[in-house]
Design brief:
- The chain has 284 residues and is an alpha/beta fold.
- Helix content is 46%, strand content 13%.
- A 6-stranded mixed β-sheet has the order 1-2-3-4-6-9, with helices on both faces. A 3-stranded mixed β-sheet has the order 5-7-8.
Length: 284
C-alpha cells in the first residue's frame, strides 16, 4: 500500500518525488497528482526496445517511493498504444543470443510487469489503435483499461513462433476474461476487437479516439483526489488475494481495513460527512 511520509519525517529523503523526472525512452508529464507515461515512437506504432523496457521497469519500481504521484496514466502517441517489441531492435538480436542471455531478457520483461503491478498507485491504460504483444501485456497489467472503437488487442506471441505464456499472460488474462477466451487469444494470436474487450471485461469503457486520453486523465484525477493510502491497500489486496482461500481473504481484509481506520483520511471523511461537506483526502 502507499504510505504518506511527511516532510518532517527523517525518512522523507528516501521518498523521491517523480514530478520532475526526465524520461529518456518515453514521455513523462506530471500535473495535479497524475503522471502520464506516453510511449513515444509514433512512426513505428510505439514499439519497445531493450532500453525502454529497462527504464519502464525501473520507473514503475521507483513509483513505490514517489508520494507525490497519486495515479498514473499509460498511453501511446500517434493514435496507437504499443506494437510490442521492436522487430529490428529486439527480435532480430534475440535470434543471436545464447540461452542465458535470452533468460535475462525474458526475466527483465517480466520484472516490468511485476513492477507495474507492485506500484501502489492505480495505473490506468488509455489504449487506442494497435495494442500488440508486449504492448498487450502492458495494457493487461494496468488496473483499469479504456479503449476506443479502433483498439485492436493481440497477444500475438504464437505468430512469431513463441508460446502464449509471456510476461504473465497465462496468469493474468484468464482472470480478466475467462479461461476459454484467454486460451483462444493466446493460441491463435488473433486480435480482440474493442467491442469484445468491453463485453468480456478487458476494457472498463470505450471512448471516441479524440476523447480517450482526456477522459482517462479525468478519471485518474478523480482517483488522485481520493484516499491514496486506501487506494494502495485496495491494489495490494487485489493482488495478494489471488492465492488465498476465502477464510484467509476475509481475515486479511479485516486487518487491512483496521489499518485504514487508523488513517487521518478516515477521520476526515467522517468529519466531512457530519458537516455535509466533501472530504479533502491527503493520503495519510
Amino acid at each position: 500500500m502507499k504510505h504518506y511520509i511527511a516532510a518532517s519525517n527523517p525518512m522523507r529523503p528516501q521518498f523521491n518525488p517523480q514530478a520532475g523526472y526526465a524520461a529518456r525512452h518515453f514521455a513523462w508529464h506530471f500535473e495535479a497528482g497524475v503522471g502520464t507515461i506516453t510511449l513515444d515512437r509514433p512512426e513505428r506504432k510505439n514499439p519497445l526496445t531493450f532500453q525502454s523496457y529497462a527504464e519502464l521497469r525501473d520507473f514503475f519500481g521507483a513509483l513505490r517511493q514517489a508520494t507525490d504521484v497519486k495515479a498514473v496514466v499509460l498511453t501511446g502517441a500517434g493514435g496507437n498504444f504499443c506494437s510490442g517489441g521492436d522487430v529490428h531492435e529486439i527480435i532480430g538480436p534475440l535470434t543471436r543470443m545464447s540461452m542465458p542471455e535470452l533468460l535475462e531478457f525474458t526475466r527483465m520483461t517480466g520484472e516490468l510487469i511485476k513492477a507495474l503491478r507492485a506500484c501502489p498507485q492505480p495505473v490506468l491504460g488509455a489504449i487506442d489503435g494497435i495494442c500488440a504483444g508486449a504492448g498487450a501485456m502492458l495494457a493487461l497489467a494496468c488496473d483499469l483499461r479504456y479503449g476506443s472503437a479502433a483498439t485492436q488487442t493481440a497477444f500475438l506471441f504464437t505468430r512469431v513462433g513463441l508460446a502464449g505464456a509471456d510476461m504473465g499472460a497465462c496468469a493474468l488474462l484468464p482472470r480478466m476474461i475467462g479461461q476459454g477466451r484467454a486460451s483462444e487469444l493466446l493460441f491463435t494470436g488473433r486480435a480482440m476487437t474493442a467491442q469484445e474487450g468491453l463485453a468480456w471485461g478487458f476494457f472498463n469503457q470505450l471512448y471516441d479516439s479524440a476523447e480517450l486520453l482526456a477522459s482517462v486523465q479525468a478519471t485518474a484525477r478523480q482517483l488522485a483526489e481520493g484516499p491514496g493510502f486506501a487506494h494502495g491497500m485496495t491494489k495490494t489486496m487485489l493482488g495478494q488475494e489471488w492465492s488465498m482461500g476465502l477464510e484467509q481473504a476475509i481475515e486479511a481484509e479485516a486487518q487491512a481495513q483496521a489499518i485504514c481506520m487508523q488513517t487521518e483520511d478516515f477521520r476526515r471523511a467522517y468529519t466531512a460527512f457530519a458537516a455535509r461537506q466533501k472530504p479533502v483526502f491527503q493520503g495519510d
